[in-house]
Amino acid sequence: MYHPFSVVETIKTAWDIFKKNFVTIIVYSAIAFFLLSILGVIISFIVSPTEFAGTMFVSFLMILVQAYTTLGLYKLIFTLIDSEYYEFEFSQVLPSFKMIWSYLVVVFIIAFIITNITILIEKLEGNSDLVFVVEVVVGILGLYLALRSMFFNTFIVDDASGPFESLKQSFQLTKGYLLKVVLILDIIILLIALPAKLAQYYPVISIAILFTYPFVNIILAVTYRKLVYSHKDVDDDIAETN
């Protein structure tokens, strides 16, 4: 290929984007984190955890807000990448209704599958050997599907794809690159898990999530763009190509 996908180059590019736009990205992350935290506190005082209808409403509201902030972050990242040579307006980083709808559809599909698998395993509790086999198979299959579909949100934001189209595109994008995607995912897990583990002993480290969360999403966005260019067999100057 003209410019084959490189894990090292991807991490370096993501880091350069993060450094160059550090203030903008951190301010957005801080605002999103603050809104989610405030919403959680307000809801905890208003809704009783024993009330089913209230709990369902709260869960949906939290998912909706999380969808908006997550897609907004990706819009911001892609806008910063594509607007390196010109200024952009705040309205450009607001996710559309279609994006939020597509994202929620995929999330609810995943939740539906997980719920049904959990119910199946609970029904097999009497047979420990069978439960173990099912858990292993589900674990392996779940990891595979997660790896193949992990870029659905980038297609929703960057390509205005629908829910099923974005999943199909993600499967096509990761074809032939699964091992490199696994390596990228390992790096992301390390960046998230290490601060989380250290925060158990030193709570102040928990603030690191304001830095690691946007950075890992930048890594995913850059990985997505570079994989797209590798499949197209074109140069991958992500600041100039869309």
Summarize the structure in words.
The structure is a single chain. The protein is globular and about 60 Å long. The chain is 76% helix and 0% strand. The two termini are 19 Å apart. α4 (97-123) runs antiparallel to α6, α6 crosses α7 and α8 runs antiparallel to α9. The mean pLDDT is 84. The chain is built from nine helices and no strands. With 242 residues, it is mostly helical. The chain has one domain.
Short descriptors:
242 residues, 76% helix
What can be said about this structure in brief?
The protein has 242 residues and is mainly alpha-helical.
Profile the largest sheet.
none
Look at the structure and give the mean pLDDT.
84
Say how many strands there are. 0
Q: What is the number of helical segments per DSSP (H or I, 4+ residues)?
A: 9
Overall shape: globular
N-end to C-end Cα span: 19 Å
Tell me the number of structural domains.
Answer: 1
Q: Return Rg in Å.
A: 20 Å
Question: What is the topology?
Answer:
Blueprint (H helix, E strand, L loop, with lengths): L6 H14 L1 H25 L5 H31 L14 H27 L4 H22 L2 H7 L4 H12 L3 H22 L9 H24 L10
Helix pairs in contact: 1-9, 2-3, 2-9, 3-4, 3-6, 3-9, 4-6, 6-7, 8-9
